[in-house]
Amino acid sequence: MTDQVNWAKKIAALARTGLHYSNNHYDSDRYEQLLNIAADMLADAADADKERVRAVLDLDDGYITPKVDVRGAVFRDGKVLLVREAVDGMWTLPGGWADIGDTPSEAVEREIREESGYEARAVKLLAVEDRKRRHPPSAHEVYKMAFLCELVGGAAQTSAETTEVGWFSEE
Fold first, then answer.
1. What integer pLDDT is reported at residue 5 of this predicted model?
2. Are 84 and 161 within one domain?
3. Which DSSP string corresponds to 11-51?
4. How far is the C-alpha of 3 from the C-alpha of 153, rounded, in Å?
5. Which residues in the chain come in under a pLDDT of 50?
6. Cα 135 to Cα 128: distance, rounded to the nearest angstrom
7. What is the pLDDT of residues 91-120, one digit of tens each?
8. Domain span at residue 115?
9. CATH of the domain at 139
């Protein structure tokens, strides 16, 4: 990730946090200007429309913190459960955003059920990874949490987010 993207994300987070805590219109105006600068920088780096980037930045409010993405590794007969994502056609461990009110283990269990049709129980947290270390730039900071899960029931079923469900060997 380029320095420009990192700087823009930090500026945007500081501006959103400042807008949340601002007590007067002078400070609010300054934070809005900073948010526009960050949107310009991110749009330039991604060759994207500034208004669309700004709309994404406006989705966050309050004190800006990283989002949490959960993934579940479920095994059966020496094979791992994967789902094909509708958004990009790539195979991945089932998972997604943790929702407010869910513990991370509850979130991964829900995501596995929603994306694959299988019921699983989170057994152990395997890893926490900063998404930017191995994925393309994103408007958000994201921590990915990977869980070892045990299969407890269900059957393969796709969803609005997945087009296929399958069990795969290590190879």
1. 84
2. yes
3. HHHHHHHHHHH--SHHHHHHHHHHHHHHHHHHHHHHT--HH
4. 46
5. none
6. 14
7. 999 999 998 889 999 999 999 999 999 999
8. 67-168
9. 3.90.79.10
